[in-house]
Here is the input.
Amino acid sequence: MSKKRVLKSLKDRLSGIFQNNSFAHGVGVLVSGTAASQLLMALAAPILTRLYTPEDFGMFAVYTGLFTILDIVSSLRYELAIPLPKDDQDAAHVAVLGLLIVVVSTGVTLLLVLFFSKRIAVLAGVPKLAGYLWLLPCGVLLQGFSTVFNYWAIRTKQFSIISGTQFRRGLGTVAIQLSGYKAGGISLLFAAVGSQCIGSFSLGKMIWFRPEFRQITWDGLKRAAHRYKQFPMYSTLASFFNSSGSQLPPLIFAVLFSSSAAGLYALANRVLAMPMALVGNAVGNVFFSNAVDAHRKGTLGILVTHLHDRLAHIAMPPVLVLVVVGPDIFALIFGEKWRMAGEFARWLALPLYGSFVTSPLSQVFSIIEKQGVVLFLQVLLFVTRIIMILVGVYYHSLLLAIALFSVGSLICYLLYVVIVVRFSGGNGIIVFSSLAKSFLLSIICVAPLIMYEIIGGAVFSIFISFVSVFFLLLIRYFFIIKNQY
Here is the structure.
């Protein structure tokens, strides 16, 4: 077989992971940039855990929690509507509307920081954070603009620009974190804002020179606000509950346990979020763009069912690896003082699976304009998480709180996926068949690690176990690529 035919065959097989070549190409472009960014951050992580303390990561986790909750409502979620209009001029009005709302949100955040920064920091259990909360309005403005620009890029399928931006953001983040470690945890905060600044300017360049943005009118803005009013009415609240459910744990742990506990949780959550950023976000961005077209053609249910099946089979193996040997992995890579973060990761791997398969598919509700369903599901997830955490707090056990939080989140995510599939026109029962099949096949892949944990043995034994699992996973993903289970 010639070299050309071999390359063509490989390309066709890689494209088989998703519905069609354009989908696979878009995901591939986004994953390449995100993979480079995440690789930089992954390589830097073992160094950062030796340069910064759990308390530093705890302060950063509290800041991130506050910022994320503010950021999620900064544009009232109008950016989600940018890919929906058929006409680019209408979409431009939606984008500018989102940018204007971000400016207003930044002003409100600035007032909150000016008058309540000390009180907020004390209530959050990190008093020294008060002097740095002025970064919040900067972050809200920069990230808000970046998010709006990102959805315009999704609309216009400028995936290479998104990919390049992700790489530059990752590079900037790591550079600031490594060079500023002597300043302590504050460098982690500045790195976050620096990353947001890079994202805003990198993505924003493609918008200002487009003719659609030179023809913005107040009447057009009013029409856009009215046409997509369900996004601030439902999606903003839904996103607020989703974000709060994710960001409140480190805040609660900092207040009721310690900033060190929040830091351990933050590291575990950060490490587990890397696969989501690598594949999940890329798939979600491309899926949104393709799903709009599929909905118009009446094939949305097929696309959703197909994508869920792929995501389930991709996510399950690494989740099981973390469940089996999470503490050992964290102790080996980040140092023995971070072993407890590995215990947290063992449980947090469960909602990681749920979030990985749910996040891209959840955009279906924006496409079919059923934001009320999203709001109900996010409130359910939020309430479940808070109750589970409070049960752990009642028994004075941080690990119990995280375990219950994780199990409750996974159950809610599975319900979420079933409802998404049903609303898209698919069969919800398929969700559980995909889950069972991916679980059984993944158990085979991680069997050597399971045997090691049960039987024990020397360092050589664990090395052999990891090598065996590595090759089994290579074979597993090879068959996923070939679309043969």
